[in-house]
What we know:
Elements: H1 7-11, H2 16-53, E1 63-69, H3 71-78, E2 83-87, E3 103-106, E4 116-119, E5 124-127, H4 128-134, E6 149-153, H5 168-171, E7 185-187, E8 205-210, H6 219-236, E9 241-243, H7 245-289, H8 291-299, H9 304-332, H10 334-337, H11 347-378, H12 392-410, H13 426-429, H14 431-452, H15 463-474, H16 476-515, E10 519-523, H17 525-529, E11 542-548, E12 551-554, H18 559-562, H19 568-576, E13 584-591, E14 605-612, E15 621-626, E16 638-643, H20 647-656, E17 661-666, H21 674-707, H22 709-721, H23 726-759, H24 779-806, H25 809-813
Parallel strand pairs: 3-7, 5-6, 12-15, 13-14
Antiparallel strand pairs: 1-8, 1-9, 2-3, 2-8, 4-6, 10-16, 10-17, 11-12, 11-16, 13-15
Helix pairs in contact: 2-7, 2-9, 2-11, 2-21, 6-7, 7-11, 7-21, 9-11, 12-14, 14-16, 14-23, 15-23, 16-21, 16-23, 21-24, 22-24, 23-24
Amino acid sequence: xxxxxxxxxxxxxxxxxxxxxxxxxxxxxxxxxxxxxxxxxxxxxxxxxxxxxxxxxxxxxxxxxxxxxxxxxxxxxxxxxxxxxxxxxxxxxxxxxxxxxxxxxxxxxxxxxxxxxxxxxxxxxxxxxxxxxxxxxxxxxxxxxxxxxxxxxxxxxxxxxxxxxxxxxxxxxxxxxxxxxxxxxxxxxxxxxxxxxxxxxxxxxxxxxxxxxxxxxxxxxxxxxxxxxxxxxxxxxxxxxxxxxxxxxxxxxxxxxxxxxxxxxxxxxxxxxxxxxxxxxxxxxxxxxxxxxxxxxxxxxxxxxxxxxxxxxxxxxxxxxxxxxxxxxxxxxxxxxxxxxxxxxxxxxxxxxxxxxxxxxxxxxxxxxxxxxxxxxxxxxxxxxxxxxxxxxxxxxxxxxxxxxxxxxxxxxxxxxxxxxxxxxxxxxxxxxxxxxxxxxxxxxxxxxxxxxxxxxxxxxxxxxxxxxxxxxxxxxxxxxxxxxxxxxxxxxxxxxxxxxxxxxxxxxxxxxxxxxxxxxxxxxxxxxxxxxxxxxxxxxxxxxxxxxxxxxxxxxxxxxxxxxxxxxxxxxxxxxxxxxxxxxxxxxxxxxxxxxxxxxxxxxxxxxxxxxxxxxxxxxxxxxxxxxxxxxxxxxxxxxxxxxxxxxxxxxxxxxxxxxxxxxxxxxxxxxxxxxxxxxxxxxxxxxxxxxxxxxxxxxxxxxxxxxxxxxxxxxxxxxxxxxxxxxxxxxxxxxxxxxxxxxxxxxxxxxxxxxxxxxxxxxxxxxxxxxxxxxxxxxxxxxxxxxxxxxxxxxxxxxxxxxxxxxxxxxx
Length: 814
């Protein structure tokens, strides 16, 4: 028999709702698989960009460095790179005044990146510190040379800009180091001028070879740059030390991309299976609606398989169109769910391949389900055991228990090695999602049982509730489906948002504990001795802290103004009680430190009088004492300024008052945040999938109401004509839809909050640092979900009542 090939696609137009549902189903399928591919690629590019942001721009390309060279050799070697610097040894240049320590250097275009205080031109540029110490003026000549000073420039200080970043160790002096250990650079205008220096500067020169390039945006570009750069350095054949920072960045970015991809794989597989189940449901509905036609074709000799292909003729084009629209949506919405928008070459083709795969699977499911339905309906085979009898919630709960065991023992699977990326344990990451899925399945089964027994309930004293319950029982299948998807949506959004937010706060809090404040710098003992006063701009936001091995010396009056603390009032109260009255100094015992008197070099005998679980800079081990308890501040190891200001603001204030500093630390850059970002990006995509499921649940609810429009119109019209007030009917529909939305929100929120609360502390990319990740404040998220749910409930109730208001009783009865 020849099937009606030409009529089938047009026949699909007779049921627009089925077309919309078919397109929406594969649209979501296509979006999930395409978004997963795009998100993984964007995560790799974003990880590379993050790593490069922590590198000096001139160090992206592999570079060379050398020392202990003759100055002439250093100059010739520097000329073989795109941006080479040659620096003499540290000596005592004499300009006819007081000889002080200094070194000479040349780097192309260096003078244009300096700030002249006096003078200019193309002669010697002397730093202001050397000019002040040696009383150098513009026009002075270097003794033993023909070189003349033409400019005095402002010394380079930390933090330096990107052009000087790779040379910071050479060009930025350490003012707290010993004489001759570090100094600023006296710059010459050309490399030939270095040959005119006095002979004592000729030996022990250093050289740096840099190769400025545009930063690669994708991993493929970075790998090509790394390989070509190393090949170029190998071709030079220079006896210098090679530095290849880009290789580490590429490895880290690749690892991050693989971690994100592997973590997303189970979620994508589950989403695809759910989507294919949706395609099967649509096919069953199509078979029910085409029952008469399919029976006629079967009587005329069509096999069940041919009837299955008949379903593809009607539903195939909508399914393909939905998949293509899913790919388009995934690409257009990339900035909303991915950590970046830069994709590796060919990523879109990979995403298209995944979309085509799920479209083919959707078509195969359509054929198989339609064939199975025809076989079951027309050939009268015995009914097989229903899958609904399988306790799927127990199966999923068992998997959740196994995931919890992995999570509690291994966390993310991270080795206790600072700077390493977490080896993501997919089973551990899946624990909170498995708990949400088990709760959703259990809630669905209980709701189906409850609706099955709902005919025993007599709530006629509250007609609105009784009618709502009857309508829910009459549509038990769609209701339980909406509840399942709704619980998954709410739980997935909450889990993804909770874990992602916890990673953000954990990185911030761990960085604060590691540094102690937003920014810190080391200063001389003169500040602690009171010989140098702090600038007025630092009052109220900065404190002076002494650091010795295993102990901090703090100022109780100002410490809480600058330090990163969870409970500043408690710390302030404890510090105020640290007043020394004898030979023994009272101290705070931190964490696991011994609760006994202890002697630390340079400090008086310490006696713990109170304890705190953790403390900035010390972590969970050490002691804290008041500054007034230290009789000789010069014996403290080092003194640091802690400030709430950004590092640039802190150093600018110190520079303005001429206060020397070194060893700067910035809270925003002190820790490698890529391990935290990897987990955050993973669960950010989980939250995005939750939003997709929420849209599915809302659309499914609205479609279910629209499908029952005639039934609602008949019952509503009859009820109003029998005396029911419109307000009671309105409240009845609100109760019906609202109860469903409330159940989905409540179960999803409870399951997700409980599972995320248990999992978040163990999803720690840096367990060697305190504090552990903590569940963030989820009340704003809960409020937004309740608001969106209430909006959907109102719209669904309005749709249900619209049919009642516009119904014509005669047509309904007819």
